Amino acid sequence: FNTLNTYTPFYRIPENPELDKTLTAYHKFMSHCFPVEQERSVVELWIAHMVQYPAYRKPWHLMLTGTKGTGKGTLVEMLEMMTPNHQSVDDFAKVNDMHSTVFNGTILLHLNDVKSLSESQQTRIKAKLSDSSISVRRLYKEAAVEKIYTRVILSSNDARPLRLDAEERRWFCPTRMEKTQDTQDFKEWLKAGGINFVYDHLMSQDVSPLPNVALKTATFYDMVEASRSVLDVELESFLDKHKVFQIAAVSDLFGRDSQIASHKLTEHNYKRSRPFQKVVSKRYKTTTNTWFWHHKDLPLDRVREIIDTGDDPGDDAETTLETTLQIF
What we know:
By secondary structure, the chain is α/β, with parallel strands linked by helices. It has helices at 24-33, 37-52, 72-82, 92-96, 119-130, 184-203, 218-241, 247-251, 258-267, 300-309, 317-324, and strands at residues 61-65, 86-89, 108-112, 133-136, 144-147, 151-156, 171-172, 244-245, 270-273, 292-295. The chain contains 11 helices and 10 strands. The longest helix is centred in the C-terminal third of the chain and has 24 residues, at 218-241. The two termini are 42 Å apart.
């Protein structure tokens, strides 16, 4: 592991003599952002844990959604004042690039309204959200394994920034922020020295109640349902039209990620087989080790018949099977 210590601690800033030294402004701001008390408590504990134990992150992160002007950006600005080791990116490509170092030497990473239609991009980031180390390949240097301390906040105006399934455990999704607020006075208070008192408050919190897994909220399940309508409906429509196919035909629906496609097909009671491994195809006049997917209850004889005759009402056999079939 790379053991170079690049951590930068919080440094108190000079306080305005006329500064309000109470936390009234802070609590008002947080209550506006997170009106549900239990969710607000979880968020504050998550932040306090980051401040108190920068070298020991929990394997889950915050997904904040809301309309513009509700305080998402101000919240991140406040946290960045307390965590000098921070970065902000607005594109998944900057996170998943093979030379990316946004997870190295950082305590806080802000994914600012990132958008991705690629399931594979979203899948690639999952390990970085939960693993304790990562392989990094900096430009002109050999790959090295480094520890990860990075907490992630994804903020978005979209109601469902990422596709989530019910088993997702890496994101805590508070209630969507709908009410706008003028945060200018709060930001001025922070810059006048109020951040010192916020930091002291967070350092005094007992973070032992913070769970090791992200709690699932009503907003989380709303996102799961919205994700299902995007992915599964398309897949089910495809399966209604095609009886036998190769994985590439389905992986295109999931950003060309065959692993996700295989998982989804298995969930729908599909399996893969090699129907012509030992039987000569009448159409191609040879055997082949090529894998084909079909429903688990569809007999292999019928699978072979569909492939040999092109008897698939949703498939153009000449362009789909003949051009993609690999002969081994």
